[in-house]
Amino acid sequence: MVVDFDSSVAAVILLAAGAGTRMKSSTSKLLHILCGRSLLSWSLAAAEGVAPQKLVVVVGHEREQVEAHLDQIAPNVTRVVQEEQKGTGHAVSCAMEKLADATGEIVVTYGDVPLLTGETLRRLLAVHRQENNAVTVMTSIVDDPTGYGRILRTGGDVTGIVEHRDADATQIAIREINSGIYVFDAEILRAGLASLQPDNDQNQLYLTDVLGFARTQGKKVGAYIEADHWQTEGVNDRAQLATLAAEMNRRIIRHWMRQGVTVIDPSTTWVEAGVSMEPDVELWPGTILCGATSIAAGAVIGPDTRLTDVEVGPGAQILRSEAILSMIGAKATVGPFSYLRAGTQLGSKGKIGGFVETKNAIIGDGAKVPHLTYCGDAEIGDGTNVGAGTIFANYDGTNKHRTIVGKNAFVGSQSVLVAPVNIGDDAFVAAGSTLTGDVGEGELAVARGQQRNIPGWVETFRDRTRAKKAATINPTPIPPAVQEGDGPLEAGADTTPTSTEKE
Question: Do 104 and 187 form a contact (C-beta atoms < 8 A)?
Fold first, then answer.
């Protein structure tokens, strides 16, 4: 059913005071994350779908955590504290103290129903108005109704709701369940709450009893049956959290495939709610996209890759790597097994190769950091090549320093660039150099000891080397200097291997 009408209501009351003990967590249940957003965030988004003039959140257990989270995601909502948890009726009564003058429609929902959408609440509201109900409850028909309140009907009309623990054998068999989500006429809700009595085995005030009160007042009580039962599911423990997360991820993946994204294996691909992608993106198995990641057309991600708050340009490829708060340019390549930390920017057609770690590094267009390199706090110009095993030594034990390498430069393998240091355009750094000073444009820097080869060293000092057996089999002449006594072996000394050496 497509809803096209003024969906604004007087208020939404969102119940978020429960203890959530089955989560067995020091973190409030409502703050646990599902597909990149807290349970409470999902529920608030649905509530906003009916444009409430006032949104009231009832808090209780772990209220400090919940309110701090509300300060971040919804600072303008009204908060009400339920000091003692005496049932849903009591929780709504607490909220109504902030809605003393409210008239019209009041929606009641929960903070732990992450798959509920604003569109569904609008359909509930449409039924409420079309049928001229005083109370309308959202229901669903499920295969296993265990634990849910059952909807009681007579001749099709809703006559009440019975909790599972209070139901008799006939009522237990009913498969239409109460979601706990309602639209009330404000006056009926106010009067019904005042009439509640804790006459049940839990000694609590049930909001469901307001439906019976409305009928005693000659008011109409109706139901909206939601075919998508997932939208009525709440989270009570971590198993349910995982189940609903998997279903939400399935829906997110299906959405993107319908938008032109290729997902090789949806069962092993996870995409959070804040991610955006263009057509012709390819996601390979084991890909995880988190936060505000955005991926442009033609990019190929994975397998076995996780991106968090990363911007990926058109045609880029990222293989078996992790990136956080980074930018990857058009047709650039990353991986395998690379780690891009916050502040990394890779230019178009640039390369970050295997087993490379970058941090706060700007790597220009066409520049390459191909292998086994740590590149932190650096700026590398367009077209520059950094050899395997290079270390940008950015930390002196107290402070971080920056290295700047110009355009079209070449840094040889196994070099160490001790920041702060500047290397000019078109400059060369010889392999194995340890730079502590700047290199000018077009210069060659060589910062290493000069190579010196000693002829016959193995044969002369074979008792000190692992090569002694090989040297014994293939002896080389002893240099004259050694024969004259210039060395550890005096002239004429016995150089015959001992029995131990022979072994």
Answer: no
Residues 158-186: b if buried by 16+ CB within 10 A, e if exposed: bebbbbeeebeeeeeebebbbbbbbbbbb
Written in H, E and C, the secondary structure of 66-80 is: HHHHHHHHCCCCEEE
Residues 6+ apart with CB under 8 A from 178: 137, 139, 148, 149, 150, 151, 161, 208
Cβ neighbours, 10 Å, residue 310:
27
32 is catalytic: no
Look at the alpha carbons of 341, 342, 347, 348 in this order and tell me if their dihedral is positive or negative: positive
pLDDT at 270: 98
Predicted confidence at residue 449, as pLDDT, reads 87
For the stretch 270-290, pLDDT in tens is 999 999 999 999 999 999 999
Of 92-96, 453-457, 466-470, least confident by mean pLDDT is: 466-470
The one catalytic residue in 128, 164, 371, 401 is: 371
At which residue do the structure tokens 């009041």 appear?
Answer: 106
| Rounded distance between C-alpha atoms, residue 462 and residue 454, angstroms | 14
d(Cα 178, Cα 160) in Å, to the nearest integer? Answer: 10
Residue 153 bridge partners (DSSP): 158
- The lowest-confidence range among 72-81, 402-411, 436-445, 463-472 is 463-472
Contact 313, 348 (CB under 8 A): yes
